[in-house]
């Protein structure tokens, strides 16, 4: 396009300012410190979850071992109790009674061995249950931390989104009625040039690329009518000429 009302060009700078504010809010939303903290917590929780599952599995296995050891000891005790009752009754031949005595001795040794095994497994279970309690406590603490950070993130989101909605409404009002061709060019340049499609010319400098125009380009721009849409020769952005300050 070649022309657009000078007033529309100047109002385009207000639209650009609001668009820049929207971009800043979007960047702030993507860059909240809570998001980085949540990634850290998720990584820690993943590690702790693995440790938790491993510890829970070990405890479950050891509880089964303890139950088996207790059952083995109880089986030997029951057998010894029956043998002792038969021996105490005095019924049976001397050979039978001698065999019972011998078996009771063997059962006593067997019971002692099994009780040692039971004690060793119980000690291991106690140690693993202690470790499981610690891992569970650490996991619960991290979950609680994550909930707090999520609440902070959501509060920040609400604040940013509310401001973005206000800026969006203001932007719609400011852009209303602007020259359609000017807006189309601006939107295209904004997409190509990192969100900045229009910039003011202050003195000799384009505020978009912050470079000073050479005298020939500056004279060429100043010679154009005020409704003429001009572009920065350096960055290609719409260059909005502002009224010259009154000389005192």
Automatic annotation (TrEMBL):
The keyword Phosphoprotein is annotated on this UniProt entry: no
Domain named CT398-like coiled coil hairpin: residues: 15-193
Regions annotated as coiled coil: 52-117
Pfam families associated with the record: CT398_CC (PF24481), Zn_ribbon_9 (PF02591)
InterPro entries named among the record's database cross-references: CT398_CC_hairpin (IPR056003), Oxidative_Scav/Glycosyltrans (IPR052376), Zf-RING_7 (IPR003743)
Domain C4-type zinc ribbon positions: 205-239
Superkingdom of the organism of origin: Bacteria
Keywords: Coiled coil
Stated name of the protein: Uncharacterized protein
